[in-house]
Write a structure and sequence with these properties.
This protein has 88 residues and is α+β, with helices and mostly antiparallel strands. The protein has 2 helices and 5 strands; from the N terminus they run ααβββββ. The chain is 18% helix and 28% strand. It has a 5-stranded antiparallel β-sheet with strand order 2-1-3-4-5, with no helix packed on it. It starts with a helix and ends with a strand.
Amino acid sequence: MRIDKFLKISRVIKRRTEAKSACENNCVKINDRIAKAGDTIRIFDTIEIRFRHKILEIEVLKIPEGNVPVSSATQLYRIIKEEKINFD
């Protein structure tokens, strides 16, 4: 599955266009490699996303087949690290 689609379906990022934009701006890494929106993810891949005020690192647990209900979206990944960024 494409990284931009996974981020949207898992609800880590709200919209697929935002996920694609994050990839284009080098804010997403897959296994410590800068990701493009069309890169394929696999189970146990590590994804790091740099948001405006935090860095989120997750591990892929499941690759969904089609749409996923909101209640089970968080079962697709496991949070490894969530770090706030301070601009002092």
